[in-house]
Each structure stands twice: as structure tokens, then as C-alpha cells.
Amino acid sequence: MSVLIDFSIFPVDKGTSVSPYVARAVSIIQQSGLDHNLGPMGTSIEGDWPEVMAVVNRCFEALQTDCDRIYFTIKADYRKAGENRLSGKVRSVEKKLT
Amino acid sequence: MSVLIDFSIFPVDKGTSVSPYVARAVSIIQQSGLDHNLGPMGTSIEGDWPEVMAVVNRCFEALQTDCDRIYFTIKADYRKAGENRLSGKVRSVEKKLT
Amino acid sequence: MSVLIDFSIFPVDKGTSVSPYVARAVSIIQQSGLDHNLGPMGTSIEGDWPEVMAVVNRCFEALQTDCDRIYFTIKADYRKAGENRLSGKVRSVEKKLT
Amino acid sequence: MSVLIDFSIFPVDKGTSVSPYVARAVSIIQQSGLDHNLGPMGTSIEGDWPEVMAVVNRCFEALQTDCDRIYFTIKADYRKAGENRLSGKVRSVEKKLT
Lengths: 98, 98, 98, 98
What we know:
The structure is a homotetramer of 98-residue chains.
Chain A: E1 2-11, H1 19-31, E2 35-38, E3 43-47, H2 49-64, E4 69-79, H3 85-95
Antiparallel strand pairs in A: 1-3, 1-4, 2-3
Helix pairs in contact in A: 1-2
């Protein structure tokens, strides 16, 4: 059983340079110990849903301390029989490329 | 303080007709008592973040009972000073239309 | 044949109040003549894919004139046999609510 | 000037194993020559907006040939002064991690 999410979060009230705030979230994701992969448009995180949501919560709370408007998106893919999908999904597609 | 989300959830292993599963989620959202608005591509829900997330959790658990693969998306907009934004955001845009 | 999208667009470099920019996009969507529905987290638009994309393009170009950073999201649902899904999808779910 | 998107596309009428269809789209993205990065929840693509949209179009058309229902999502981040952001955005965040 595995939930894989793509997660992005940033403040809308801080102007164009939001990377310090994104770094704050990424640091929390790293400390969680969950499998994750930092990408240019979001971070992929894999785990049980309660664990994954707890990390999302901590990221949101960390930005709430000094941001008045925050936007975040989650795309989630749950598969009952899934495991190690962070790398497995990419491998599965790559094998089928001709 | 308010979080407004757009939430969509559906199974990927049940073929083309997913509305029975969507209805199950919408029914849970209605029973939550939170302000919401059912749209063709997702349901908008407004509330405190813990309340909103609890509803998302219940929808996900309700589909897990008989779906092997589930996809869901959340777009969230938090505004510290916000209230009644489910209708307020639409009104604010409509006032500016010329 | 129908593509139904949920579309949201806003500048990231203009601070917290983005409704004037959203209104600019919504005005373009209205002028397109395509079926649409303005919601708090995005606008649903239905049509052929080339028509729908042309509208998205015009909205993006309209914001590019004075915005240095723009974020937008599209969720799209294509159904070969679909028609009038803007209202039809909601009705189909409502019928199944108990 | 650069648009960076996160793009995911899959059929909803083909059951749980959608990787052959995803591979078809990824193959088209690879042939486009645009900078891209395949991730577990989507592929990041960078380029001018017309180029990027042309690739999205080709992927959608390739799935339309044999899929009756298709879901796809785009998250886009435009920055007027941006370049090489596929790797640059990740580096910018990594530098700020402590």
C-alpha cells in the first residue's frame, strides 16, 4: 500500500523570489525520513497517507508563521498493491520507451 | 483565517463511469457541514485546515474500501485575513469585470 | 467529443490581491463564447481542445503584458462520447447522492 | 523568458496499468528536443509556451487514438527573466537548505 504525492507550496504575498520559503518546506520533508524527490515544479513524497499528510501539515504550518497568503497543490496516486513507486514508476515507463 | 480548496477524487481501476464513486465523496463533504460548492471538475470546500483535511481523509478512506487505484488532486489557497471566500472570491472577480 | 478543463491563473509578483488579474482572464473566457462556469478556485471551460487551448493562450498573453511571474494550472478531462458535461457531470453525481 | 510546466496524462478507461500510455507521451516529449525531466508524478518540460503547448497537444492526440477517456494536468510557472530553470530552480532551493 502506498500513496505517492506531488506537492508544491509557495507564498503569494512575498513577490517573485519564493525559494527561501520552498527551502523551508523541503527541509521539513527531508527531516521526515520519507522517500522523496525534489523537482523543479514540486516534490514527490511516498509513504502511508497519514505520514504523508503529517509532512504536508508541518510544511503548511511552517509557512503560516510569516506568510499571509499561501498556495499549495497536491496530486496523489494511491495504489493498494504499490511499493517503492518513487523510482518504480519511472522505471516502469522507461522500460516501455522504444 | 480560511483555507479554500478545490478537491477532486476518482478511482482509476473502475473504467469510464466514475460518478458513483464521486457521489460517495460528495456525500461525505455534504455531511461535514463545511461550506462547499460542487463543480464539474472538483468540489470547493472552505474551512479551517484541520477540518478540511479531515473531510479529504474520510473521502479517501471511503474509496479505499473497494478501489485499488485512486487519483486525487487538491489546490489550496490560504489567506490569513480571509472569511466567506467560497462566494466572496467569485464576487470580487465579478465586480471587476467590465 | 468534449474536453472539460478547470483553469486557474494568477500573477505571483503582485502581492495578495490578484482579483484584477483574474478578472482580466475571466473576461477573455466570457468573450470566447465557450460554455464556462466561474468558481472560487478556478473556471471550468468546455469545448473542443483547440478552442479551449486558444482561450488559455489568450489569458496567458493578457497577463504577460504586465506580470513578471505567472502561475497557472489546468486539470483536463476528455471524453470521446461526451457533450454538455459542464452541467451534465454535476447532475450525474447529484442523481447518485442518497 | 521561460515557461516551466509539470505535465501528467493518463487514460481513465484502461484499468490500473497505464504505463504503456504514459510511455507514449514521454516518447513524444523526448523527441521534441525540449529540456525535460521525467518524474514519478509527472514530467517537467521547459521552453517557450508555444513549443511547450505543441508537445502537450501531440501527447494528447497520441492518446486520443485509442483512449475514450483521458485525464491530464498542467501546472505552469512562467518567469519573464527565467532561463535554464529545470535545473536552476532545484539548485536555488538546495542552496538555501541548512
